[in-house]
Each structure stands twice: as C-alpha cells, then as structure tokens.
Amino acid sequence: MATKRDYYEVLGVNRDADEESIKKAYRRLAMKHHPDRNAGDKGAEDKFKEAKEAYEMLSDADKRAAYDRFGHAGVDPSAGAGAAGMGGFGDAFGDIFGDIFGQGRGGRSSVYRGADLRYNLEVTLEQAARGTETKIRIPTQQNCTACSGSGAKPGTKPATCPTCKGHGQVRMQQGFFSIQQTCPKCHGTGKVISDPCGTCHGAGRVKHQKTLAVKIPSGVDEGDRIRLAGEGEAGVNGGPTGDLYVQIQVKPHAVFQREGDHLHCEMPVSFATIALGGDIAIPTLDGTATIKIPAETQSGKVFRLRGKGIKGVRSHTHGDLHCHVAVETPVNLTDRQKELMREFEAISLKDRERHNPRSKSWFDKVKEFFEP
C-alpha cells in the first residue's frame, strides 16, 4: 500500500495554519480536481479524494490534534478512507459554500435580524452647535401582539415543515455535487402555518408608527450619524431587532458658513470705514462682538475671532470665526456725493504712487507688457 502523504503537504499549508487557511486551500484543490471537471482523469480523482481526506481530518479539532501528535496512526484509518469516498463530498463541500452564503451546515436560515432604519433629521446651525433634543416619528415593523410574532392564529402554533423536516433547507444531488438551498415550501423558516393570524396574516410582524426622543449632542456636523440601538425593525422568528441611524443634515445659515469647527462670514464694510478705520459690530453664535478696522484696510482682509466658532463632537476646544472684509460700493449717490467723489478721484490721481500704490504698480506692469 502506498504511503499516505502528509495532510498539510497535500493542502499546501503550514502546520500552524488556521481553520480559514485550511478551508481556502481545500476549496481551491476541490474545484481544480473535481471529477466533474476532469471526466475520465483517474489522477485528478485521486488528488480530489486525497485533498478531501486531508481537509476532513485537519478541519476537525480533535482529529487534527491526534494527527499532529501521532501522525496517520493517530487517526482512524477507516474514517479517513470512508471520508475520502465520493458520497461524503456534498457535506464537506456544502460546509464551505454554506459559510460563504451565511447558511452554515446544520444551521437554520429562519431567524433573521431586523432591518436597520435611517432617518434624515434637519437641524439649524445653532442647534448643531449647542445640541438639542427633539422627537421624531418613524414607520417600522414590530412583532404582532396578537400572535406574539409566531404568525399563527392565537391558540394555534406553526407546524414543522414536512418538506425540510424543520431544517429550513433542502439538499439536491446532481452527479457528484450536493447543493443545499432554501426550502421552497417554508421559505427557510422550517415551519408552515395552516391557520394564519388574522392581524398580521401570517407575517408575524405589523406596520407601526412610533415616536422617539432623540438627543443631538453639541458640535454635530453635516453627515454625522446617531445610532439608536434596537430601534429598527423587529427581527424575524425571534431574531434581534435592528438599529435606527439618525442622519444629521444642517440647514444653510443666513450669515455663517461652517468649515469643520470654524465659521466664516462675509463682513460688508463701507468705503469710508475701510479708508479711515473704525469699529464694526458683528454677530456670533454667542452674541455680538466688535472688530476694530484699521485705517487703509484692503478688501479681502480676514479678521479672526478666536474661540467664536464651534466645539465639535470630537474636539477639545472651540474653533474660530473668520470675518472676510468685503468693501461695499455705495449706490444711489446724490449729486453732491458724486461731486465729492469726482473731486476725491482727481486729487488721488495727482499722486497715485502715494494714494493708490497697488493701482500704480498694476498699470506699470500693463505698460511694460504692451511696450516692446
């Protein structure tokens, strides 16, 4: 009799390989050497059997421990030979596909976690900055109180599905492949209801509107989510309830624009104040503040008020308020105002280098550009 190869060598894994690595190695070899894909190839069939035997030994914790200690002598030869037969292929291969699709061997697909829900909540910038508490109404599915979620008429119980015997899954054999799928009669629940509940019509759940109090922490921003555990839809057949995620949307503000923890605002300043200097009162989220405008301030200047921004949810300090100077051009001038403006312009042009240094520099550059 030919000497058996080392099981780890057969699968091409290290002796300290974890269960997932062993499973992946076997799946690769099984797909490669399966007889259905290698019709008439005796060598491929032997390799398939060899890989299957190695997988069944190493995927079992007790058998693997015995094999690691005593080698092939530590495991029952008949278990290895029998396992290598083609009849057991569906069970082992089904385990792999079952794990992929969330239907583990022997497990039932009848218990499902309830769906998570999302609620878009619009808040003002002030509410987002300071925090608030509000109430929301959400449509959801909850367990039917009439039948306690069983789906059967009160006083009756669901019966075990005669097709799948309560497993929720049936197995179909095609050649060497054994495929496990959801039972078509009970749709994976493992039970059938002959006399459904008149309230939920056998679903076990009913639509419901519920009101929840939601506490919005200070500093939340656009796109932040608040999780309310267990406030989603009810599970199916005793499964856990889903969660509710409240998605924050911040309304546009008339004065401020938020950037992280900082706030920005445009500050219109008159021509006279820009030229001569002066004080300007500006709003903040905490009240009014005063900014001193130095004489001869240029348009686009940004003044920063430290700590007048927002303290974010994950921040330790407040952000800043950035005030952007925007020179306001006067409109609806009287004849006298126009006369004074022309007089002012004439005086300025006589000594442009002194009164309008940026303008003179720009015109000089333009002149150099056009002159050869």
Could you walk me through the main structural features you see in this protein, from its secondary elements to its overall organization?
The chain is of the alpha+beta class. The chain has 5 domains: 94 residues, Helix Hairpins; 90 residues, HSP40/DNAj peptide-binding domain, CATH 2.60.260; 34 residues, no CATH class; 72 residues, HSP40/DNAj peptide-binding domain; 36 residues. 30% of the residues lie in helices and 26% in strands. It contains 11 helices and 15 strands. The protein has a 4-stranded mixed β-sheet. It has a 3-stranded mixed β-sheet with strand order 1-9-8. Strands 2-7 form a two-stranded antiparallel sheet. The chain is elongated, with a radius of gyration of 38 Å.
Task: Write down the secondary-structure element order.
Answer: HHHHHHEHEEEEEEEEEEHEEEEHHH
Broad CATH class of the largest domain: Mainly Alpha
What is the CATH superfamily of the largest domain?
DnaJ domain
Strand order, biggest sheet? 10-11-15-14
Which percent range describes the beta-strand content? 25-35%
Largest sheet, strands/sense/barrel: 4 strands, mixed
Q: What's the architecture of the largest domain in CATH terms? A: Orthogonal Bundle
Q: What is the count of structural domains?
A: 5
**CATH-defined topology of the largest domain:** Helix Hairpins
